Amino acid sequence: MKKKILILLLFILSLTSFAVPLNNMDKDGNVTLPNIELVDQYGKKHNLQDYKGKVIMLNFWVSWCSDCKAEMPKVVELYKEYGENKKDLIILGVATPISKKYPNNKDRIDKTALLKYIKDNGYIFPSLFDETGRTYAEYEVVEYPSTYIIDRNGYLKVYVKGAVSKEELKKYIESVLNPIQK
């Protein structure tokens, strides 16, 4: 009996610590995430629906986060290595600047300062601006950086809380780009 209770508690704990909207899980265990329609630092609008058939890596970050600062150059390197979103992998950052209208957003600087920060640091991959904070809330982002890798069918395959090495990110990307067939 104690063993069954322990297993049940571990299962519940694993669900609560997995800060991803699991209410979007189908009967086969595939998780779909909310669509994103946001504009990047270049003024280009991105809609995740437009990237069906491609693998998408979303990297949620904030400017004040030391782990984000350490990871971002690696994301830039991967962006270049994988063809700058012109091939099978789409790499997108997501940032949430504060504003008078949305003072509770996660970053501590406004959009103008964030644009300068992105340019000054050479973050050339598209970073989408979640100006309302809605996307961060829908994706239940609570740790920075948070990375989501979505497969060609739109299903979440990898979720990483916190910073990881370039090699780990590449391993996760490759596992979704080139899955082992069963």
Q: Please, could you describe this protein's structure?
A:
The protein is of the alpha/beta class. The chain has five helices and eight strands. The protein has helices at residues 2-17, 66-81, 111-120, 134-138, 166-177; strands at residues 31-32, 37-39, 45-47, 55-60, 89-95, 127-129, 146-150, 155-161. The strands form two sheets. A six-stranded mixed β-sheet has the order 1-8-7-4-5-6, covered by helices on one side. Strand 7 (146-150) and strand 8 (155-161) form a beta hairpin. The longest helix has 16 residues, at 2-17. The protein is globular, with a radius of gyration of 17 Å. The chain starts with a helix and ends in a 5-residue tail after the last helix. Mean pLDDT is 89; it is low at 2-18.
Could you name the ranges where pLDDT drops below 50 across 5 or more consecutive residues? 2-18
Report the structural category.
Answer: alpha/beta
Instruction: Tell me about the largest β-sheet.
Output: 6 strands, mixed
Give Rg in angstroms.
17 Å
Encode the helix/strand succession as letters.
HEEEEHEHEHEEH
Helix segment tally: 5
Helix content: 25-40%
% residues in beta strands: 15-25%
Strands, total number: 8
Q: What is the residue-mean pLDDT, rounded to a whole number?
A: 89
Side by side, the strands of the main sheet go 1-8-7-4-5-6
Cα separation of the termini: 36 Å
The outline comes out as: globular
Organism: Fusobacterium canifelinum
Domain Thioredoxin: 27-178
Signal peptide: 1-19
Keywords: Signal
